[in-house]
Amino acid sequence: MANTLSLYRTVKRLGIPDERIILMLADDMACNARNKYPAQVFNNENHRLNLYGDNVEVDYHGYEVTVEIFLRVLTGRHENSVPRSKRLLSDEGSHILLYMTGHGGDEFLKFQDNEELQSHDLADALKQIKEKRRFKELLIMVDTCQAATLFYQLHSPGVLAIGSSMKGENSYSHHLDTDVGVSVVDRFTFYTLAFFERLNMYDNASLSSLFNSYNPNLLMSTVYYRTDLYQHRLEEVPVTNFFGSVMETVHTYSAYKV
Fold first, then answer.
1. Residue 237: which domain range?
2. Coiled-coil segments, which residues (predicted)?
3. Rounded-to-integer distance, Cα 229 and Cα 226, Å
């Protein structure tokens, strides 16, 4: 949960508003009776930052987070009763960041410990939304064990993928918070956050600089990239294309007819 909330906070700081974010949290640890700090979630043992206390808007939580609902959000196949705020309202010009974390294995990611998102499910959903012109470019970032295997079936152009570990590898937590008795953040997400904490929304850091920032000795796993479906050189793509939102201002000296 802290992994997801940490990245959520980062993209908001870099300019993406809540109305353009779909946040899904399978667990509600902030309100869990075993949480020593009610309504608080931390990603560091120093407890300096409460990830849950700064205008968090959760779109799907608890048992709403299922494989079916996840695929419906991606493909836009909702019941009529689903409000606009819980829909992915993208189009053919959209750059989408899809971040997933949890327990994974060889070509699957677990949902709620009782069902799995398979690699072919993800590939089929992305094929559908590409055909329906629901994105221009899409970056998938996955922090799980054997994360790379979730990308094996991808075949839609415009998709870029990065995973925290190769087939047969585990993804490890970064450190334990002895006060709450659990590990609070995973290594891949921790070092992703460390990269972005050095930036603001106007920095021109590239995807290449992000991808090259991962040290396998610190991660204790091998980061995997899938770039063959992506049309651009990573050195030329700003990270803010996916992790931020920068309003471009165009100066004009001509009058605007009202």
1. 2-241
2. none
3. 8
150 and 104 in contact (C-beta within 8 Å)? Answer: yes
Catalytic residue among 47, 78, 145, 251: 145
Inside any domain, residue 229: yes
- HSE-up (13 A, CA, CB side) for residue 50: 11
Structure tokens that stand for 208 in this block = 């290449």
pLDDT of residue 131: 97
Q: Is 120 a catalytic residue?
A: no
Cβ pair 172, 188 in contact under 8 A: no
Note whether residue 246 is domain-resident: no
DSSP string, 139-192: EEEEESTTGGGGGTT---TTEEEEES--TT----EEEEETTTTEEEEEHHHHHH
**Is residue 248 assigned to a domain?**
no
- Asked if residue 63 belongs to a domain, the reply is yes
| Domain harbouring 54, CATH code | 3.40.50.1460
Amino acid at 164: S
CA-wise closest residue to 50 among 34, 39, 59: 39
State yes or no: is 145 an active-site residue: yes
Model pLDDT for residues 177-221, shown as the tens digit of each residue:
666 666 668 899 989 989 998 988 888 899 999 999 999 999 999
User: SS3 of 30, please?
Assistant: helix
Name the strands in the sheet holding 95-101, side by side, starting at the edge strand that comes first in the sequence.
Answer: 95-101, 137-143, 159-163, 224-226
Choosing from 103, 155, 175, 232, the catalytic residue is: 103
Return the pLDDT at 173: 85
Task: State the pLDDT confidence band at 51, using cuts at 50, 70 and 90.
Answer: low
Backbone conformation region of residue 220, classed left if phi is above 0, alpha if psi is from -120 to 50, else beta: left
Structural domain count, the chain: 1
